[in-house]
Amino acid sequence: MTEVSGQGGQITFDGQYVTISRKGFLARATLGKGEKRLHISQILAIQWKPAGPLVNGFIQFTVPGGNELRGKLGSQTSNAAKDENSVIFTKKQMPEFLKLRAELDVAIAAQHGAQETGPTPSASLADELAKLASLRDQGILSPAEFEQQKARLLGR
């Protein structure tokens, strides 16, 4: 289970569901308290804006029927702050969000590949394992996270 906290929102990923929780004053002031659960099969894409020294970044989930706002230069993060499928993060929080994004990329690819072609072919499984190994080698995934994701892919 992966949990990350951003500005006005938290995201939990258990391998099947992404849960966006809103707690505290900032959440009440923007989107309201509560939580939203998305099954991995509902997520079509992930929009990512890295945080910089002076600006926050965000992660945004695209879902069927969603109406995400793609803002002009300088207003992307403020638009994301108003979107229920987005969570804003600071530069300090960004490494944890990068790990979450990597896990979600692997899970989404596996889910959508399984839906389109039925059982995942061995070559595809090998590709996914190679991607995980690359993420581990880059330091994005810890060895323990790598083993956890590998076990999930292999159905253990």
Q: What string gives the helices and strands in order?
A: EEEHEEEHEHHH
Shape: globular
Determine the fraction of residues in helical runs and give it as a percent range: 40-55%
Share in β-strands: 15-25%
Strand order of the largest sheet: 1-2-3-4
Instruction: Catalogue the unreliable spans.
Output: none
Figure out the total of helices.
5
Radius of gyration computed on alpha carbons: 16 Å
| Coarse structural class | alpha+beta
Can you summarize the main beta sheet? 4 strands, antiparallel
Euclidean distance between termini CA atoms: 16 Å
Mean pLDDT: 80
What kind of assembly state do the chains in view correspond to? single chain
Tally of strands: 7
Overall tally of structural domains: 2
